[in-house]
Design brief:
This protein has 413 residues and is mostly helical. 72% of the residues lie in helices and 0% in strands. The chain has 18 helices and no strands. Helix 3 runs antiparallel to helix 5, helix 7 packs antiparallel against helix 8 and helix 10 packs across helix 11. The two termini are 38 Å apart.
Length: 413
């Protein structure tokens, strides 16, 4: 019995992170492990050993969090949706508590390896599940394909399937690179790339392009010489996967043809190719120009949209003029529209802090942190169409990754 208790004590935090990833397809369910970490913080602070670690982690995590949180609070003062903005700012404190708890509880290397291992298996399962759904019409659990996109376990949240696979792919690829033979790494990369492509979300395609470029650079290092053949096979592999995906998936064909319309160069063509994002970008910029200091308020984009949209806006027409887009669909524009110049300054400060943290880490710690840091870069890459960065889904994912990054830090870093 005591052995089981000791094992639970040493492993429960890793399983909570794994549960968070496993629950991502299911709406608000990932909030459960996140809240477990948040509520664990006061109990951890009672231990002398944990208090010492907590003090060191606060120096790293709190400045980053303030770059995110203070613009939210300041934007709430004159928000166009004051109740929403205030509640969102208050509720965001749980991300800080969760990230600090993760940085304490997952400081052991074995715990982080467990997270990487089971996250890798989960991502591979999601990828295979997507292919099964494409060819059979329903996935391994009998979930029917959404009429608009491949959805696999994500059911109604089909738009999250491909981009989430792409954003978390470094966790799988790093585990495969370090623990599996080269052919298994190549197979894993192929499955994830193929699933993201057939999912039909172009934000996922761009993210996988970044992953591809990163690993092309990474795998030419001397320490990865056993994967050199994999390095040279990547371009051929990527082309083959995309060709197979194009031939097998009408959705993929449709999205490729739609995207190619942007080459016409006209605003109408770009709007069509971007799934009518141009009016959203224009409206977001109009909000920023009208409220340059602290924006229209965090998560007030939807409430402000009718006021700043141009006459005849397609998104207002779709709802009978009652509401428009939920968010700006780009991290920089969302921060600018919701929180103004103050938010943009916070975003820049956070990027500079992350760069400084990375530079001062010991080389061995950098290798440990690499999958989490790369995932953060992919989540927040500015030249992409994004989910709501202040929304629960992306915010939870960001601060879970920040906590895992912080967990790799040693006292001397």
């Amino acid at each position: 019995m005591s052995l089981l208790l000791n094992r639970f004590k040493s492993e429960w935090a890793a399983w909570m992170v794994i549960a968070f990833v496993a629950l991502l397809p299911f709406g608000r369910w990932p909030e459960i492990p996140l809240l477990v970490f948040a509520f664990a913080l006061p109990f951890l602070a009672r231990s002398k050993e944990h208090r010492q670690r907590l003090g060191r982690m606060c120096v790293i995590v709190i400045p980053l969090f303030l770059c995110y949180w203070l613009p939210m609070v300041i934007s709430s003062f004159d928000s166009l949706a004051p109740e929403t903005s205030s509640l969102k700012s208050l509720a965001a404190l749980r991300y800080l508590a969760a990230a600090l708890s993760i940085s304490i509880l997952l400081q052991s290397e074995s715990a982080r390896w467990r997270v990487l291992k089971w996250t890798a298996f989960l991502l591979l399962f999601w990828a295979v599940d997507g292919f099964v759904q494409l060819f059979l019409g329903s996935d391994l659990l009998g979930i029917a394909m959404h009429p608009d996109r491949l959805n696999a376990l994500f059911i109604r949240q089909y738009q999250f399937y491909g981009p989430t696979l792409a954003m978390l792919s470094p966790l799988l690829l790093e585990y495969a690179r370090r623990r599996w033979p080269p052919w298994a790494w190549v197979l894993s990369f192929s499955l994830i790339l193929g699933a993201v492509m057939i999912a039909g979300m172009r934000s996922g395609w761009l993210i996988m392009g970044l992953v591809l470029a990163t690993y092309m650079l990474l795998l030419v290092n001397r320490e990865n010489r056993e994967l050199r053949l994999a390095t040279f096979s990547i371009p051929i592999l990527a082309a083959g996967v995309m060709l197979i995906g194009y031939l097998a998936s009408p959705l993929f064909q449709e999205r490729v043809e739609q995207s190619l319309r942007a080459l016409d160069g006209t605003e109408a063509a770009v709007d069509f190719a971007s799934s009518e994002r141009v009016p959203i970008f224009k409206t977001g910029y109009a909000m920023f120009r009208a409220h340059p200091v602290n924006g229209v308020g965090v998560r007030a984009f939807e409430a402000a949209y009718p006021e700043y949209a141009e006459p005849g806006d397609i998104h207002l027409k779709k709802t009978g003029g009652t509401r428009g887009a939920l968010h700006a669909h780009n991290v920089v524009l969302e921060v600018a529209a919701d929180t103004g110049v103050i938010g943009l300054a916070g975003l820049l400060a956070a990027a500079l802090l992350c760069w400084r943290y990375w530079r001062v880490m010991q080389p061995s710690r950098r290798q440990e942190a690499f999958p989490y840091v790369l995932a953060l870069v992919l989540v927040l890459f500015p030249v992409n169409s994004h989910f709501a960065v202040f929304g629960t889904y992306l915010s939870s994912l960001i601060w879970m990754l920040v906590g895992l990054w912080a967990a790799t830090w040693l006292t001397g870093d």
